[in-house]
Design brief:
about 260 residues, disordered N terminus, alpha+beta, 11-stranded antiparallel beta sheet, 13 strands
Length: about 260
């Protein structure tokens, strides 16, 4: 039986390496929109959380607010708040507003807002994702003042959620593994708005324009220019992680190199 020479094997091995690499390169993930509205409430009081899942992605929502002691920078330290899912989306009741379906609802301050002590939403994902967009819903109509719809967001890529107790908006940019805050501004209105997001990670922190400190002296009901909205949904796509691909391709390339040396 004839024996194949090394030169004859090379094209075949090279083709196999290319095919192997192609088979392990993950296809681009499809973007998934996770509906955060009407998610079954959120029992548990301050420090609670709600889990949402869709399209193979799971996230856990929780809340903080600057209801703690004042800092030197004119901010206030974070304390845990209550997260709740209403028909129009996720809202926050902080310790200055009371609990959902009690003082917080009666005062009309159960949104994510910058009126009074500012709220901070935390979305913790079960995997690394590419953030695409998030929808804010002022949930107002004719006869009401248009609400601010600005957002500030930070993206983190961390093994575990950091404890935000003792932090403030003035120190979020220093959190290990997190990006600096990004402000996305849009004019006040009644209508929902989809903010584009940029970055990848497994944590999304979101607030209004916390730098507008004049809103500290206003309420969500009276502060026409203060940000106040629910979060109706977030769109993200999973970031593929093919750890075996590099090892397999490296093995094929090593084999090719050895064949060349024998020629």
């Amino acid at each position: 039986m004839p024996t194949l020479h090394s030169a004859a094997r090379l094209p075949s091995l090279r083709a196999l390496a290319v095919l192997a690499a192609a088979s392990f390169v993950a296809a681009p993930a499809h973007a998934v929109t996770i509906n955060l509205a009407d998610g079954g409430g959120g029992a548990g009081g301050y420090g609670n959380s709600i889990v949402f899942a869709d399209g193979g992605i799971t996230l856990t929502a929780s809340a903080w607010a600057e209801t703690g002691a004042a800092t030197d920078a004119g901010m206030y330290q974070f304390e845990t708040a209550e997260i709740w899912s209403w028909g129009s989306g996720l809202g926050i009741c902080n310790r200055a507003e009371g609990l959902a379906w009690a003082e917080c609802d009666n005062s009309g301050e159960h949104e994510i807002d910058t009126a009074g002590r500012d709220d901070l939403l935390v979305l913790f994902f079960d995997q690394r994702v590419r953030f695409e967009s998030i929808v804010v819903d002022p949930h107002d109509g004719p006869g009401d003042d248009p609400r601010g719809r600005n957002i500030t967001y930070w993206i983190g890529d961390v093994a575990a959620l950091p404890d935000l107790a003792g932090h403030s908006f003035g120190s979020l940019d220093t959190l290990p593994g997190f990006s600096a805050g990004t402000l996305s501004a849009i004019s006040p209105d009644f209508e929902p708005f989809s903010h584009a997001l940029s970055g990848s990670g497994n944590v999304l922190l979101l607030a209004g324009d916390f730098a507008a400190r004049q809103c500290i002296a206003q309420s969500a009901v009276d502060g026409a220019e203060c940000d106040a909205y629910k979060i109706a949904g977030v769109t993200a796509s999973a970031v593929p992680v093919p750890p075996a691909a590099g090892l397999l391709v490296t093995g094929f390339l090593t084999l090719l190199s050895a064949v060349r040396r024998r020629r």
